Amino acid sequence: MRRDHPDLPRILVIEDEPPMQVLLSDNLEFEGYAVRALATAEEGLAALAERPWSLVVLDLMLPGMSGFEFCRQARARGYWLPIIILTARSDESDQVIGLDLGADDYVTKPFAVRELLARVRAQLRRAAQPDARGSEETRFGDVRVNLRRRLVTRRNRRVELSAREFELLRYLLAHQGEVVSREQLLRDVWGYSDQTVTRTVDNYIFKLRTHLEPRPHEPRYIITVHGSGYQLLV
């Protein structure tokens, strides 16, 4: 780590290719972050136990333990900092697996450095947002959401949400009663640019409804406002 200051966001880079390590570290440090670069997932898990980190930039293809396994173990051990995965493969199944194992975002190699830095800023900004206007637990219908424990239950039974589904729910709770556009969600939850055209938001809204609504096709809580976006009514 070339810089370390208690007020700087600390970013952990886990990447085994030396040129990519240097590229990532130099650009992140230039943006004002404290950076530590490691070559293996095992070293990364040990670093998580040593001190608090603000964000992880993680390559999927690593020697020894894979990036997928790092995500799984990090979440199982209770580390809920943002994780951005880097992958040289554009296969959508890899991206879905990574997100379902707990990653918050992914960037496909080769990538524009400006895009990665924008994703980092978006994830740090989202992580710093107050949880649902300061409320630790929110209830609607037979659903309870404990933001601090990242626990969602329905009819007193745990609901298993992926990391991205939970972050989408967190954002909707923080803006409950407001109409939020797809573009707003893509920017603040996914870190995409406003010009991105994707059905990602619609697909994840449908997943949330399937988990939380009594009748997903006739939603009571996560409402579509046609031509504008979505609204959470609690």
Q: Topology, please?
A:
Elements lengths: L9 E5 L3 H13 L3 E5 L2 H10 L4 E5 L7 H10 L6 E5 L4 H9 L4 E4 L4 H15 L9 E4 L2 E4 L4 E4 L2 E2 L4 H12 L4 E2 L1 H9 L9 H13 L9 E4 L3 E4 L2
Parallel strand pairs: 1-2, 1-3, 3-4, 4-5
Antiparallel strand pairs: 6-7, 7-8, 8-9, 10-12, 11-12
Helix pairs in contact: 2-3, 5-7, 6-7, 6-8
Structure description:
- The longest helix has 15 residues, at 113-127.
- Strand 3 (55-59), helix 3 (67-76) and strand 4 form a beta-alpha-beta unit.
- The protein has eight helices and twelve strands.
- 39% of the residues lie in helices and 21% in strands.
- The strands form three sheets. Strands 2-1-3-4-5 form a five-stranded parallel beta sheet, sandwiched between helices. A four-stranded antiparallel beta sheet has the order 6-7-8-9, with no helix packed on it.
- It has 234 residues and is α/β, with parallel strands linked by helices.
- It has helices at 18-30, 41-50, 67-76, 92-100, 113-127, 163-174, 182-190, 200-212; strands at 10-14, 34-38, 55-59, 83-87, 105-108, 137-140, 143-146, 151-154, 157-158, 179-180, 222-225, 229-232.
- The mean pLDDT is 86.
List key phrases describing it.
234 residues; alpha/beta; four-stranded antiparallel beta sheet; 8 helices; 12 strands; 39% helix; globular
The strand order across the widest sheet is 2-1-3-4-5
Largest sheet: 5 strands, parallel
Helix content: 25-40%
- Percentage of residues in DSSP E strands: 15-25%
* Uncertain residue ranges: none
Give the N-to-C terminal Cα separation.
Answer: 45 Å
What's the helix-strand series? EHEHEHEHEHEEEEHEHHEE
Mean of the pLDDT scores?
Answer: 86
In terms of structural class, how would the helical and strand content be classed? Answer: alpha/beta
